[in-house]
Amino acid sequence: MNHLGRLTVTAALMATLLMPAPGARGADVPSEDTTADGIRCLELAPAFARRLASLRQRCERHATRGQSSKAFERCEARAIAAYGRRLARQGCRSGPNDTSPEERMPTPTGSWVGLARIGGAIQEVEAAVVDGIAVLDGDISLGAVDELNAVQDALEDEVAAADLFDPTGGADQRMNGAASAAGGVRVTPRSGTVIARSALTWPLRTIPFVIDMSGAPDSTRRTTITTAIQLAIAHWNANSLFQLRQRRTGTSAEGDFVRFVWKDDLCRSPVGRQGGAQLIEVDDGCSQGNVIHEIGHAIGLYHEHTRLDRNRWVTVNWRNIQSDKTLNFQQFTTASGVDRLRFDFNSIMIYGPNTFSNGSGPTLSKVGGGTWTAQRTALSDRDIAGAALLAAELARGTRLKNDATGTCLRDDGEDVEAVVCKTDRNQHWFPTQAFTQDTVLVNAETGRCLGVDAGGGTFDAPCTNSTTVRFRHIGTTDGKYAMYESRRLANRCLSIVGGSVRVETCSQSGAAGLRQLWFKEERTL
Q1: Model confidence at 30: pLDDT above 70
Q2: For residues 460 and 443, is the Cβ–Cβ distance under 8 A?
Q3: pTM (2 decimals)?
């Protein structure tokens, strides 16, 4: 049956469909405190992103991710280092690269045990207390202790009503004999990649922000950190589906937003959207890479070493950890987050091997031996994929079934192909609205996007702010069918041509029209 009759394509819609694809969004308008070099580097941010993507593509050509992930990781580590050197040569690397933001944590004055909302779930946690703030993992802020204490009765009532808390899991959650000061579930956020609940994600992948460095002691230090913040924002905007933009003013001002504020000797952020104004606290000792890391927390990423599967990849050497920093190595349950993708030693969210060492040796080591260098330069391939999966959490997963062939799209870890429809996770896609008007197709298994190359072929591409992965979506009135017109190649729609997934000249009729029509079969993953 020809389903083209279900398409509602008015003249206005067709005009919109055939409109030339807009360019990728650039960095936000610089602050008055951004240096001249900083402004130049902001203008270069899209070019830097393309350079990093090119370096990664070389790695992919020499080591297929699915078959030789270790080879890809080694190559990517070298690529990120080369990218960092390029930034430095251009004068576009702000701050040192050898200090993790967590290690700037001041000495705790005590600890706090209680219920808190983490990753959308109510959890019992033990956190360090620094200047009256409950802190996890060295740089994740839970909030003021006084405020946390004030809501304990309400949280306990909520737990009792919803049966959200499992008081039997405490002993099972202690890792490698780490002491537990509290019964019940001992969890804190985990970076495995993402938070668990969509309530903490940012609507439409947009994060309004304000930079308020009025607390800086002088203009030089204020300018230094403001430039680092702007460059970190530009990096996220160019290399992810999330877009940070300056908060609107007046009656249209957004209620939920991030406020960057000056705080001596800190690089710190909560995890995920908190509601209202949430603080990312920094000073000029936070490098550009440190700020990228902290924005990652605000978006919803946790530390890699606290994943549920971390013991398969790293060993925590408890005897080598500073006595007042052992809380930073807790491991967490599925209530507060979800492990996505393979453990990533290249992640900008991972601790270094010697983080919080007491001098007796590394605090973390690879299972089976070996070490790594924690980088604070750029989002890794899996950081980008994890953020894409987080961005797609608000979209409903679907299989995309071609109306002409009856086959479904699958991401095999390298290519996008048309295959017999199955329930495999790599055949599930999240059609996700991004960059205001466009749609990207995020694969549920890989966290990669369906991309279009210069010749009209398709491949699995990183989900970045690039026309390569952006489509204009035209849906049927019942919402079950859609056409996807490439933003990279104008008036070319996603199709199956000769058994291959490609884009071809958009058509509303005939055999070509059927090839370009996709049935969106919603499925629960």
Answers
A1: no
A2: yes
A3: 0.86
